[in-house]
Design brief:
It comes from Phormidesmis priestleyi. By secondary structure, the protein is of the alpha/beta class. The chain contains 14 helices and 17 strands. The strands form 4 sheets. It has a 6-stranded mixed beta sheet, covered by helices on one side. The protein binds manganese (II) ion.
């Protein structure tokens, strides 16, 4: 029986906007969070004395991470090499430079000949002799069209046709690997991809338009005892037989992962059988605070008391609030910053609700073809509060319509403009009139 630790999507160096600089180290606190999460995975591999570590890809957000971030990643994985734990590092989409053509950051481990380290940047089978016995790992890195197709083959094809061609090639190439397998020892497929049975996590946003989906039916072969997946940040089981699991990311990369549990997997794999245990990691908590202020008489007070109701200490906070245009000046952002000071970091996103989104008058529906003047007349008929002004408004509108558009005459007679300001009962209605 081979004891395996499966982790994935470390994205070291990502999500810096949710952190701050730690004055003691000079590092972004989110890098420290991600490093700590990775450290906990490696600690567990050592404590549990696993026979093998499988990394599902996407080590960094880009293929060219700054040296200090590569170092943070390397110094944790290096502990596995020191402890003689074989480790397979799979290449994900974020790890590939120029869509596969420029190599992958992880290949440096092969170049350096780190003992026991295997880099999975091609579709191939690796036989590994572990303390728990021999095992074979098929590595399936993120596929790009250049992996399995040549340029002339894809010329003039649509994205959909290219994807179909790529899937055909994958079927054939995977079949080739399967036929070479030793049927007497356990087999794991380690793949970085999107399957059709996956529920999307952050990757929906991270990989928009870049990828394609591999049907689970292509992967779910009897010869696999376990399918270790990377790419989707939400931990999930996507197939029961054979068992196929996305380990998910080890820390929250962005707010799309707010409600997801983070962790890694410990597995016992033997020929014909795999059992998995999900081990949660204490990832930093992300919390969205949403407030609708549009009906509040004192928006600042309402906002402050909404913040006060939340436990925000050391959390990554996102404050979303809706307000009317005329309430903007009532918000004191300095006081908001003070109220949120206990948070680890915060993003404040006000949203001004348009006053024009009120229901239209039925008489002014889209299918009614009216002249501007009769539309205005209809509007005024519905506004009793403006009845005293109606003749002047209509006259002014007539004047505007008759006016030479390139002339330099005043747009609204000054006396009438004054009337608007003094007599409009509500500011937003005045606003609406001006836009009419
Ligand atoms: Mn990915």
């Amino acid at each position: 029986m081979v004891k395996i630790l499966h982790l994935s999507d470390t994205h070291m160096g990502g999500g810096f906007s949710h952190g701050r600089i730690n004055p003691e180290t000079g590092l972004n606190t989110r890098l420290e969070d991600f490093t700590l999460a990775l450290k906990r995975c490696v600690d567990s591999a050592l404590e549990q004395k696993v026979d093998l570590v499988l990394f599902g890809g996407d080590a960094f957000p880009t293929a060219t991470p700054p040296p200090y971030i590569q170092q943070a990643f390397a110094s944790e994985f290096c502990r596995l090499a020191t402890a003689n734990i074989p480790t397979v590092l799979l290449v994900g989409n974020h790890d590939q430079h120029a869509q596969g053509g420029g190599g992958a950051s992880l290949c440096i481990y092969r170049t350096l000949g780190v003992p026991g380290f295997i880099v999975g940047d091609t579709l191939t089978t690796h036989r590994i002799d572990t303390k728990g016995g021999p095992i074979q790992i098929i590595t399936l890195p993120w596929l790009t069209r250049s992996t399995l197709l040549t340029r002339p083959e894809t010329q003039g094809l649509s994205m959909k046709e290219v994807s179909e061609l790529l899937l055909d090639r994958l079927r054939v190439a995977l079949e080739g690997e399967i036929r070479k397998l030793d049927s007497t020892i356990p087999t794991v497929l380690l793949a970085h991809l999107m399957t059709d049975t996956a529920r999307y996590g952050a990757e929906r946003f991270l990989a928009v338009g870049k990828g394609f989906t591999v049907p689970m039916a292509i992967l779910a072969r009897d010869c696999f005892d376990y399918i270790a997946l990377g790419h989707v940040h939400k931990y999930q089981e996507v197939c029961k037989s054979p068992l196929a699991i996305y380990a998910g990311s080890i820390e929250r990369v962005d707010f799309s992962e707010e409600k997801e549990e983070k962790g890694y997997l410990l597995l016992d794999v033997q020929k014909g059988q795999a059992t998995a245990t999900f081990c949660p990691l204490p990832a930093r908590i992300f919390k969205t605070v949403e407030v609708d202020l549009t009906k509040q008489a004192d928006p600042q007070m309402a906002l402050l008391s909404a913040i006060e109701r939340e436990e925000i200490t050391e959390k990554v906070i996102r404050l979303l609030y809706k307000l009317r245009a005329d309430q903007v000046e009532d918000i004191d952002s300095k006081a908001l910053g003070k109220a949120l000071a206990a948070a680890h970091s915060c993003t404040i996103q006000p949203q001004i609700v348009s006053q024009l989104s009120r229901p239209r008058l039925p008489e002014l529906g889209v299918d009614s073809a009216r002249s501007p003047l009769s539309a205005l007349q209809t509007y005024l008929n519905n506004r009793e509060d403006l009845s005293a002004l109606a003749p002047d408004i209509l006259a002014a509108a007539q004047g505007l319509l008759n006016q030479d558009p390139h002339g330099d005459k005043a747009i609204v007679a000054p006396d009438l403009a004054e009337d608007f300001e003094s007599e409009s009962p509500e500011e937003d209605e005045e606003h609406q009139l001006r836009l009419l």
